[in-house]
Amino acid sequence: MAEVSIYLDPLSQPCRSVYLFAKVNKIPFKHEALQLFKGEHFTEEFRKVNPLTKVPALKDEDFNLSESTAILLYLARKFNTPDHWYPSDLKKRARVDEYLAWQHTNTRPHCSKVFWGKAMAKLLLGEQLCSEKLDPILLQANTTMTDLEKNFLQDKNFLAGDEISIADLVAIVEIMQAVASGQDLFKERPKLAAWKQRVVAAVGEELFNDAHKEILAVLEVKEHLPPQLVEKFKVKLALYTN
C-alpha cells in the first residue's frame, strides 16, 4: 500500500490532530511540511493539492482531500485503526460525530479567538487586544469549556466514552491553541485538567509534546512575516475580534 502525503504545519490545530492520529496509529505517510507564517499555503503548487489554500490536506495518489475531520475519518477507515478511535458501534460512533459537529461552532472558534486576540494580536500589533475586546472572547471560551465538561465529558474518562477517540484529539488541540496564547483554560478546572492528562497518556507524552512544541513557542517568534501575509492576518484578526 502506497503511503499518503499529508500537508501540515504544527501551528495549525487541525494539523496537529491529524499528525497525532497518524503518528499514534503508525500510519505510513509522507510529511509535507508547510509554513503558514511564510505563506506557503498560497503557492500555486499547493493550490493543486487544495484550491482552498488550507491545511491540513491529504493526497492519496490521484485523490486529494481537505478538512481535518474528513481526513481523520478517511485515515481511520483506510488504515483500519483500532475501533475506539471511531467506533463501529452505532451509538458510540454517534457520540464522536456529535462532538465533531458541535466543536465547529464552539471549541474551535472560541479557542481560536483567544489565540488571535492574545498571541496573533501581539505578533501583528505588538500587544494583545484591550480588555474591552478581549474580555467577551475569554467569557465565550470559558463558557465553552463549561459546556464541554458538563455535556460531553461528564463523568467519563474521555469525551465519547471510556476510551480515547478522534473527538478527544480534535478537542485537545483547539484548547492548547488558547494555552499557547497564555490563557490556561485548564486552570481551576480539575476535571478538564485530568482529562487532558489522560489524553496525553493515551497518545504518549513525547508525541504530544512534539506536536505542540512550535505552537507553545509562538510568542517567541522573532522573524518578520511577509508584508502581504501581515495584511491578510490583520483582516482575519479584525473579523475574529470585531
From TrEMBL:
<feature type="domain" description="GST N-terminal">
    <location>
        <begin position="2"/>
        <end position="83"/>
    </location>
</feature>
<protein>
    <recommendedName>
        <fullName>glutathione transferase</fullName>
        <ecNumber>2.5.1.18</ecNumber>
    </recommendedName>
</protein>
<dbReference type="GO" id="GO:0006749">
    <property type="term" value="P:glutathione metabolic process"/>
</dbReference>
<dbReference type="Pfam" id="PF02798">
    <property type="entry name" value="GST_N"/>
</dbReference>
<comment type="subunit">
    <text>Homodimer.</text>
</comment>
<dbReference type="InterPro" id="IPR036249">
    <property type="entry name" value="Thioredoxin-like_sf"/>
</dbReference>
<comment type="similarity">
    <text>Belongs to the GST superfamily. Theta family.</text>
</comment>
<dbReference type="InterPro" id="IPR040075">
    <property type="entry name" value="GST_N_Theta"/>
</dbReference>
<dbReference type="InterPro" id="IPR040077">
    <property type="entry name" value="GST_C_Theta"/>
</dbReference>
<dbReference type="Pfam" id="PF00043">
    <property type="entry name" value="GST_C"/>
</dbReference>
<dbReference type="GO" id="GO:0004364">
    <property type="term" value="F:glutathione transferase activity"/>
</dbReference>
<dbReference type="InterPro" id="IPR004046">
    <property type="entry name" value="GST_C"/>
</dbReference>
<dbReference type="InterPro" id="IPR004045">
    <property type="entry name" value="Glutathione_S-Trfase_N"/>
</dbReference>
<keyword id="KW-0963">Cytoplasm</keyword>
<dbReference type="InterPro" id="IPR036282">
    <property type="entry name" value="Glutathione-S-Trfase_C_sf"/>
</dbReference>
<dbReference type="InterPro" id="IPR051369">
    <property type="entry name" value="GST_Theta"/>
</dbReference>
<feature type="domain" description="GST C-terminal">
    <location>
        <begin position="89"/>
        <end position="228"/>
    </location>
</feature>
<dbReference type="GO" id="GO:0005737">
    <property type="term" value="C:cytoplasm"/>
</dbReference>
<dbReference type="InterPro" id="IPR040079">
    <property type="entry name" value="Glutathione_S-Trfase"/>
</dbReference>
<keyword id="KW-0808">Transferase</keyword>
<dbReference type="InterPro" id="IPR010987">
    <property type="entry name" value="Glutathione-S-Trfase_C-like"/>
</dbReference>
